[in-house]
Amino acid sequence: MATRTLLRIDSRCGWRWRAALPVSYAGLARGQSTTAAAEPQRPEMKTEVPGPKSLQLLKELSAVQESGAVQFFADYERSFGNYIADVDGNLMLDMYTQIASVPLGYNHPRVIQAFKDPKNQAAFVNRPALGLFPSGDHVQRMRQTLMSVAPPGLSNVQTMACGACSVEHGQKAMFMSYQRRKRGGEGPSKEEMESCLKNQAPGAPNLAILSFKDGFHGRTMGALAVTHTKWIHKLDFPAPDWPVADFPKLRYPLDQFTRENEQEERRCLNMVRDLMATWEKKGCPVAGIVSETVQCEGGDNYASASFFQGLQDIAKENGASLMLDEVQTGCGATGKFWAHEHFNLRSPPDVVPFAKKMLTGGFYHSDEQRPTESFRIFNTWVGDPSKMALLEAVLEVIKKDGLVDNSKVIGDYMLNGLLDIQNSFPAILSGVRGLGTLAAVDCPDAATRDKIITLMKNKGVHAGTCGTATLRLRPTLTIQRKHVDIFLDIFRGVLKDLK
Amino acid sequence: MATRTLLRIDSRCGWRWRAALPVSYAGLARGQSTTAAAEPQRPEMKTEVPGPKSLQLLKELSAVQESGAVQFFADYERSFGNYIADVDGNLMLDMYTQIASVPLGYNHPRVIQAFKDPKNQAAFVNRPALGLFPSGDHVQRMRQTLMSVAPPGLSNVQTMACGACSVEHGQKAMFMSYQRRKRGGEGPSKEEMESCLKNQAPGAPNLAILSFKDGFHGRTMGALAVTHTKWIHKLDFPAPDWPVADFPKLRYPLDQFTRENEQEERRCLNMVRDLMATWEKKGCPVAGIVSETVQCEGGDNYASASFFQGLQDIAKENGASLMLDEVQTGCGATGKFWAHEHFNLRSPPDVVPFAKKMLTGGFYHSDEQRPTESFRIFNTWVGDPSKMALLEAVLEVIKKDGLVDNSKVIGDYMLNGLLDIQNSFPAILSGVRGLGTLAAVDCPDAATRDKIITLMKNKGVHAGTCGTATLRLRPTLTIQRKHVDIFLDIFRGVLKDLK
């Protein structure tokens, strides 16, 4: 891997650097686009994907674990920027990026620099019990990283190891704040303290979280209780009897179906209201409402700002908290740093879990959600400072390179391209939609969608799926027009062949 | 931080190296003990702990999160081997090691070497969605790390990010295998597939996990449902109505109370049997039994091999799986690599979660616990290959240096020392117990225990707590007699002052 030094970071659409090695990069003029120089120009395909080496490794991996989800074995040393390499020598434009979890692309020079910075070494080789013994630079790092991009109005943050844990502990914060309000400032009773140890009321109260059909929040028991996507995620696991509301099924493009969509959102909000009342009557009041800002795993389903405003109103009317899950939508891809900034909420959401592109899990929360006792939100690691050392570099690049704006500009460009293609293939594609570089389009059925994905992959574009028959696009934040052009070109070619 | 090169690894009780820098290490003879040379000779205390710098940082951290659990801010660059440094210039012998999660001590040269190895760089800067796109070296790394230390008879492993997630997904494996057995080879029905999405039976069946009083398994909803330690862990969170059996309350030393302890264990096993029958009758059969091998957070409570054999028998009689949680007890500290190897079980446990000293989370499991469909045990990251790159170095040192045996030898030495001290202070100490270097002793009450901990800390020995009034010791695997001597000396001094 070549050592590259960061030269200038002043562009809206990507970083720029001077390559020290290999020699072929050395002639780069100041200001010449990075990716143009150091990234491959195009995908390069040697075999079908998965190729023979991937298939052999898959066989070996299957000896020690169920591995049916593996698509191919990657070569992360050779992957670069927006391109992922595999062990069979293929190089694909990556429009899925590890389920939307690669912020700047592979082997970004600034991230490598942070990894090699001697001041970060101790964080990588000595993982602390962060809630007990944080390092001396932890506070400053929290300020420079997580707090520097905190959602407006949220001044508390708690790190966690992954997305599911972040949702789980965010739920705990909501349960605690609900019970605290109910106690009106009194401490817990002896009966509560004793009964909770046996999983019994009143200490373990009968409380619910309201969630949405097709919502996805993770796969541990609490996160899974509010997840309603595919049976494969949920079958065989006991689950609490919590209310599940319909999420609006909007028609796209949104501006052509304003009235129908408003009606649909009203219907869903009324359902939320009804469910809250029903569960209250059942003696299992709703302590919190959980929604993604865009339902990703469930099919890239959008709802309007006005829907989320309404949802927040309902939460407030009922004394419940509102969690907006930004695990997949946070960190700039939607054209705002947090997707919920698009919603113009009257006050901040109460809890905002994050992970994926943020490299560390965690959740932001309001003062009201802050536990009043220690060890309530806790575990051994509660995150990983080494991920924050990398995040520091990532956020620096996002800010200096204007990558949040880039997501908007390139996202619009991509969306227009997708609409064009949809117009060319109306029998195959429908419902093109997107926000920033989050983009999706529906196919007639899963088989057609999967065939398109496979054909694209074999031509060098790696895309994802969601919902039942949706193609899901999740590029890096450094994507440029030329990448979009390559994707659109190959997508169009595949659809032509399919016809 | 000095760069040190590994010279010889041939001792039972610690590694040996030649120091390249600073100059003061350069004269070390071949074979001279590492820790003797490179570690501090003794604790060095400048202030009380937490000192003024820690207190200032704590104030700042509290601005962004509830931080009451923080004990001090550490200086991980200056920490070395068995000594942890803090920001106030104090250097403490660490007998707690980040809640038992530091295998070799701080800044171990071999771990630093793995961190700096260019072949590992890609794993640190490109975190994959491991279940979809593992790297080409993943299979080999799995073999060299996790599979090379797999518990006897368990040939499957699934990585996860942390201990709680490992327990949660281990529980899911038990629920799935239970339902699979019930279906007798048939696939799930349409009704099951649809109802599970709404958290309803039959897809989300009414099944339980049996767990133990004072057991601790984590703080996400599924792990917390089988955790029964302190109210602070559980209060305000809804919990499933699952059976909770008594864990044996044994009297120590075990060999002096054989008959009483046998009786107590029989009582608890009978209770398990009764609870299983009761829940079966309730229509909520027990799909799995969960226990730690040693109850750590709950007070370092031991049970005999015969108890665990009985527990496995009951599980098998009832068609339930057995999970033995080794998150805190695994990775060599008990004098066996896995604590359950002490139990001579007739067949392997079904699920063994790990984390902490293993650096990555995960769980081993039998073939029967392997999901038959993909994406059942899954999330975006499912672990972190960079942790496995470090684990590779850790396991290499453990094996070459015989650190599992070291735990036994030094553990016995420490236990004898503790028994001596207990004999000197019978009014203050009781119940000294241990397995390998896992060791604990009871104080009359929490206040006395906490006072001892504080006094020890201010003299340079950092120890932990568990249960209601127990002092918990969790040194690294590289601990030597001289460390134990320093600890015992300071412990004895503190108890004398207390008298």
TrEMBL record, chains A, B:
GO terms for cellular component: mitochondrion. It catalyses: 4-aminobutanoate + 2-oxoglutarate = succinate semialdehyde + L-glutamate. GO terms for biological process: gamma-aminobutyric acid catabolic process. Keywords: Aminotransferase, Pyridoxal phosphate, Transferase. GO terms for molecular function: (S)-3-amino-2-methylpropionate transaminase activity; 4-aminobutyrate:2-oxoglutarate transaminase activity; pyridoxal phosphate binding. Its EC number is 2.6.1.19, 2.6.1.22. It comes from the Eukaryota. Its cofactor is pyridoxal 5'-phosphate. Gene3D superfamilies: Aspartate Aminotransferase, domain 1, Type I PLP-dependent aspartate aminotransferase-like (Major domain). Belongs to the class-III pyridoxal-phosphate-dependent aminotransferase family. This is (S)-3-amino-2-methylpropionate transaminase. It comes from Littorina saxatilis. The lineage of its organism: Eukaryota, Metazoa, Spiralia, Lophotrochozoa, Mollusca.
